Structure of Dihydrofolate reductase family protein:
Amino acid sequence: MSSTVGPGLQDMARDLVLTQNVTLDGVVDMSAGWADPGREAPDPAQVALNAEHMAAESALLLGRRTFVDFRGFWPAQAGTDTTGISAHLDAVPKHVVSATLGDPGWAGTTVHRGDAVETVVTLKAGEGGEICCTGSITLAHVLLTADLVDEVRTFVHPVVVGAGRRLFPDGGAPTSWRPVAARTFTTGVTFAAYRRS
């Protein structure tokens, strides 16, 4: 998963949006249990913002681990989820980059066994709305390194965990991003979106 793309490939038909929950100290790894979608009542303004993002999304892109986590959690929320996320995830076309995943076991899922960068270049060249990648830290790092990400959306949680994998990979080339949106919610979570300059 270490390929890079040539000049001009970032200017494709569909935007790739990387959406991540992140701690105040920049960690996206949730193994410490700092983010739990079912732990607290969401701010209605955040639910509305998520709905806006989901309405623009025509495909969901995931790595194997995040896909398995989602598959084990969200379908079980059908009927009780008031955020619309469960219904959206059932309906949206899902693309998983994995060399080891067998039957995905979730309708509307395509497993891509080839090179991650080539897969995403092909997906971006299609027509339709945004492609969203969330979680999937290894895949996200590949996409950032290959300069395939058009927008980064972060939901910053007011916690510090001290260790864990971060949003941007170590050793990457310096890049510039311009802020395009920011919101703060009653839960203390702050949303910020950045476009590639």
